[in-house]
Write a structure and sequence with these properties.
The protein has about 600 residues and is α+β, with helices and mostly antiparallel strands. It has a domain at about 50-130: Ribosomal Protein L30, Chain: A (2-Layer Sandwich). It is built from 21 helices and 19 strands. The strands form six sheets. Strands 3, 4, 5, 6, 9 and 15 form a six-stranded mixed sheet that branches. Helix 5 (about 150-155) runs parallel beside helix 10 (about 265-270), helix 9 packs antiparallel against helix 20 (about 550-565) and helix 13 runs parallel beside helix 19.
Length: about 600
Amino acid sequence: MLTACSSPAQQPEVLVADSSLGPLTPRRDLSELPRRGRVLDRNDSVLVATRSVYLLTLPVRPPLDSAGLNRLLGWRDSALRDRIAAALPYEGARPKGGVKLLLTNAEAERVRKRQKEWPMLRLTQQTMRTYTTSTGAPILGYAADQAQAFLSSAQRYRRGRFYRLRNGGVESYYNGLLNGRRGARHPLLDSTGQERGTWAADTVFQQSQDLHLSLDTKLQAYAESLLGGRKGYLIALDPRTGEVLCAVSAPTFAPGTLTAPDRAGTRRQLLENEDMPLLNRPATLANPPGSVFKLVNAAIALQMGAIRPTSGFRCDQSLINCVHHHPRPNNLTVALQYSCNPYFYQVMRSLIDHVPDSLVADTVTARHANLATWRRYARTFGLDTLLGVDLPREQAGFLPTPAYYDKARRTRNWKFRSIYSLSVGQGEVNLTGLQMANMMAIIANRGWYYTPHFVRSVGTDGPLPRFTEKRYTLIDSVNLEALVPGMIAVMQRGGTAESSSLADVGITIAGKTGTVENDEGDDHATFVGFAPAQNPKIAIAVYLENAGFGATAAAPAAALVIEKYLRGSIAPKRKRSEQRMKYRTASYQREHR
């Protein structure tokens, strides 16, 4: 006789049946339960791990000697009050189980030694995900099972669904690999204990994997110190590998906030903050890129033969306003150096309005075909499509199609004048921060890229296979090379970002500034670039909301991050600019603490 009884997958059982042995006797399969893997940075410093922590439970109803408890724990006079405020979901709340505060090992030891003097305090120990860093919150994310308090409150809030879908980070994306899988055998035994097949498919044990990120935590912390008090993002990656070096979504917050049991009040403040710090801006927000998009338009125009590097156009401000006073743009390099709007208006017009001999009598069809070709080339920069980065809920951005304009203009007979905003990266064009940084990697590499990614190695196996596949654009390398002299000139005397040059420390940046018109407030500032120009090791994109000109707001931040990465320190002449940015961040954090 063969007998078996199934049991939950976590604890499979084998039942042996034999009348001479009496009742059925279960025998447990002692399979190993994998421990959730760690998250480390590119220098193998542990950022996230599963560890034992101590929770101090305060009495539901005071009185409590706050001053005495502060002294016991070694806290400043107002620390207990601030910690309780951060722990309560709203002012005046009285949690049924009492207020729980996380303690360090040293603090817990102090309480344990004097427990008799504080009988109203309860000290417990539990295992949870802990963060050893205060940076990179949208990238690290959270384990969903430990963020239930946040997810529940987010569901009840008006923006909750939006946040819930977009904030899991690498902890969510790589959840299966971090968790591993418990192995189990399901043998079918006869009355003599001999195996006679199986009653269910075996489950192979899979060890949990550590994630080795590409993030440089020192660079991440430095970039956050510059941008933390603004709204926007900064993305830097290594164009040679596609590894993301730092990714700032500002305003910033500490990664442990969404899972810590004593931060309910802080989570509520983050949900209600009008600056929306819980958004992962570089991956999930697509915005008009502004003048930095002139690089893509110029590359496509060169590829399609609409212009040559030596092509010149008059700075005709009857076509479109040009905010820079500059010499006549007699070639592409000068036009990029001064970001001449009328020049790129005419570049795009030459591209869209070109009528081949075969369509000489049908200009409508020619415009449709040219716009479709423009879009096909632009999409090979990784635009209007998901790049496939290793973060959940990446957005694709948008590039308009001929059919889109047919519907929007309610006619097929639209003219270039009705879509000219494409020439300066405005209107319907929308890119994410990751796409803008990847766009720079493509130009830095003169036509190819690896998909940007945050995990450089899963265990010891390297990144996921798709991140090692080299991808190419449809733009010839010679046409991308033609952009570089103008990008270098942007950072030189007379260029739109000359004040952010790093020539004094021997670093040549190839860059492009941009200013995005905003009908609802101050304009947005953008900057993209890579360095060193002839041997690129870092590509960068900066987008600062309501910050004004890209040359005065975004470019200085990018230059500081580039210098910090390539040199490890900041030259004295830029220290004042650095301190000014850090002061603004510190002021914002004090106001929103």
